[in-house]
Design goal:
The protein is mainly beta. It has two helices and 19 strands. The strands form four sheets. Strands 1, 2, 3, 4, 5, 6, 11 and 12 form an eight-stranded mixed beta sheet that branches. Strands 7-8-9-10 form a four-stranded antiparallel beta sheet, with no helix packed on it. It has a four-stranded antiparallel beta sheet with strand order 16-15-18-19, with no helix packed on it. The protein is globular and about 60 Å long. The N and C termini lie far apart (88 Å).
Length: 298
């Protein structure tokens, strides 16, 4: 009886250690999450550029909740690249969401082998050892089999039998959308930094005041296409673009510099949900969801 009790205690202890060694799940899709990626050219002894991705604010696409994800462009100051980095522009890249440890994305441009303008599975952190992965971001077909899951630094890293890997909260070592595996060519990317917070708190000098953007208003919304942009006091002309819910550009134009703070637009759009993107606004892309409803009684 004592021998049985000791064996049972040993088994329970091993199970407890196995459970306690697994890191608590850390979601990837959170507001104000920032990834910095370094870009290198083979043969050059230093990174030739840096860029990144930034998650900011909620939106809906086809009645599904997403967060907006922006491409972060940094001023080219190689080879020194002093910290903090200096923001060049912040452009809407697509939409991203997470559900049951699965990360889905819609991007306006093709990412490695993933389609543009339609939802795809970016990462799956629900796999267990022995599962065959099915990620379009992989350089390998089939993607691979999960050979090990190792906790480190509070997150789990998934190792595949094809020598590739990806990590909770972070993504792949090459970058968030840059592929899983080992590409070949003259140019390589590498994950450099992950941070959660305002850009200024993540070693990025923005050069603008955030409240200048927050005061921009779009009304009425919904509308028949006739809208007013209020507090538009940027210097010089700015471009604007209308994207449908799939990220396709359906209309664009120029917002001229005006003496007043209001600009009127008459958008020739069919009924539906769109995104108004104002570019080059203090090195920031202002994005606002607008709803078009043409009342047939008028």
């Amino acid at each position: 009886m004592k021998l049985y009790s000791k064996r049972l205690l040993l088994v329970l202890s091993i199970c407890f250690l196995a459970l306690s060694s697994k890191a608590q799940y850390q979601p990837l899709v959170v507001d104000s999450a920032l990834w910095i990626i370094q870009h290198e050219t083979v043969g050059i002894p230093y990174p030739d550029s840096y860029f990144g991705y930034y998650i900011l604010n909620d939106t809906t696409v086809n009645s599904i909740n997403y967060k907006k994800i922006y491409k972060v462009y940094l001023k080219d100051e190689a080879p020194n690249w002093p910290q903090p980095f200096k923001l060049d522009s912040l452009n809407l890249f697509g939409f991203i969401r997470e559900d049951l440890k699965k990360v889905y994305a819609i991007t306006f441009n093709t990412a490695v082998g993933c389609p543009a303008n339609s939802e795809f599975l970016l990462y799956d952190f629900s796999y267990i050892v022995g599962d065959t992965t099915n990620l379009c971001l992989s350089y390998y077909q089939p993607s691979g089999i999960v050979s090990n899951i190792i906790p480190s630094g509070g997150v789990n890293t998934f190792y595949l039998n094809n020598s590739s890997q990806y990590t909770e909260q972070i993504g792949a070592p090459l970058g968030l959308f840059e592929g899983i595996g080992t590409p070949s060519g003259m140019y390589n990317t590498y994950f450099y930094q992950h941070c959660i917070g305002a850009l200024a708190n993540c070693n990025i000098s923005t050069g603008y005041k955030s409240n200048e953007i927050a005061h921009l208003e779009i009304f009425p919304n919904p509308s028949s296409g006739k809208i007013t942009i209020r507090n538009f006091n940027t210097k010089g002309n700015a471009q604007f673009e209308i994207l449908n819910c799939f990220g396709t550009s359906v209309f664009n134009g120029i917002l001229p510099e005006v003496s007043s703070d209001d600009i009127q637009l008459n958008l020739p759009l069919n009924d539906g949900v769109y995104f108004l993107v104002i570019k080059n606004l203090e090195s920031y892309d202002f994005v606002k969801k607008i709803i078009i409803f043409n009342d047939p009684t008028k």
